[in-house]
TrEMBL record:
Listed transmembrane segments: none
Record InterPro entries: Sugar_Epim/Isomerase, Xyl_isomerase-like_sf, Xyl_isomerase-like_TIM-brl
Xylose isomerase-like TIM barrel domain span: 29-266
Isomerase as UniProt keyword: yes
Record's keyword terms, sorted: Isomerase
Protein name: Sugar phosphate isomerase/epimerase
Protein species of origin: Rhodopirellula maiorica SM1
Lineage: Bacteria, Pseudomonadati, Planctomycetota, Planctomycetia, Pirellulales
Record's signal peptide: none
GO MF annotation: an example: isomerase activity
Keyword Chloroplast recorded: no
């Protein structure tokens, strides 16, 4: 398992669960100094990232790009994949495809989380699920040209009513015709929704494609009450070889949150 840390470039999300906030150059250099393997970037859109500059910064720091988030599509641009308006849904799918195209240049995946939307008084649950599936089919097929999967994240009940558990996510992925979509299992969301986090990861099995490595209170690992022994054992049981990525509050500050996550990563993966 490899280490990863989040960088946010979205001012509208400041104070949210991302560790590093001081721009790509400083954040990537700091992650490299701490020995991280990769970064996950949350950007306002693809026009906020110069691919050549990013490549240079990553090379200089000895890092990979693990993934690009699409959440700004919702947070900043109010685009979501279950919108009642077909034109808005198409805009949302294009936003995702653009992120896939940028991430794909680095052998990295795009993540769909908050953009998945939800059912409501206008869009009923079966229709919202149908729209989400259409978007995952579209994105998964589009990502295949880069030999990377699209990553889909079940969220807790307060953020979506689409898929809230790993089992829900597995069922969703099994309903697709594409096999190029994997699951992001976020330990914070899982702590809310799962009866047994380790068993849920085992249920996810080979569909588990990315992990958000965070504690029960969304602070860095080691700053809450989550028990990681069985979680790490479950990831080893399913032969998970991907990233443990810190999507956590920058508590007590970004630098210490990054250091604490690296200490925890080394403790749990090397013990």
């Amino acid at each position: 398992m490899k280490s990863c840390i989040t960088i946010s470039l979205v001012e509208e999300a400041r104070g949210g669960p991302f560790v590093l906030w001081d721009g790509l150059e400083k954040s990537i250099a700091f992650a490299g100094e701490l020995g991280y393997d990769a970064v996950e970037i949350f950007a306002p859109g693809t026009d906020a990232i110069d691919a050549d500059q990013l490549s240079s910064l990553l090379d200089k720091a000895g890092l990979k790009l693990a993934a690009l988030g699409t959440g700004a599509g919702w947070v900043k641009h109010k685009l979501q994949l279950a919108d009642a308006d077909a034109a808005k849904r198409e805009q949302a799918k294009k936003f995702v495809r653009d992120v896939i195209d940028l991430a794909g240049q680095f052998g990295a995946s795009a993540i769909i989380g908050s953009m998945q939307g939800r059912s409501d008084a206008v869009v009923d649950a079966p229709t919202a699920r149908k729209y989400l599936c259409e978007a995952l089919e579209d994105g998964g097929s589009h990502a295949a040209q880069y030999n990377v999967p699209l990553i889909y994240e079940p969220l807790n009940r307060y953020e979506t009513n689409q898929c809230c558990t790993v089992a829900d996510g597995v069922k969703l992925l099994d309903s697709l015709s594409t096999n190029n979509v994997t699951l992001l299992c976020d330990l914070f969301h899982m702590n809310i929704e799962e009866a047994d986090i380790a068993e849920a990861l085992i249920c996810g099995g080979e569909k588990v494609g990315h992990i958000h490595f965070v504690d029960s209170n969304r602070r860095p690992v080691g700053c809450g009450h989550m028990q990681y022994g069985r979680i790490i054992a479950a990831l080893r049981q399913i032969n998970y070889q991907g990233y443990l990525c810190a999507e956590a509050f920058a508590w007590p500050n970004p630098e210490e949150a990054a250091r604490q996550t690296m200490r925890a990563y080394k403790y749990w993966t090397q013990s």
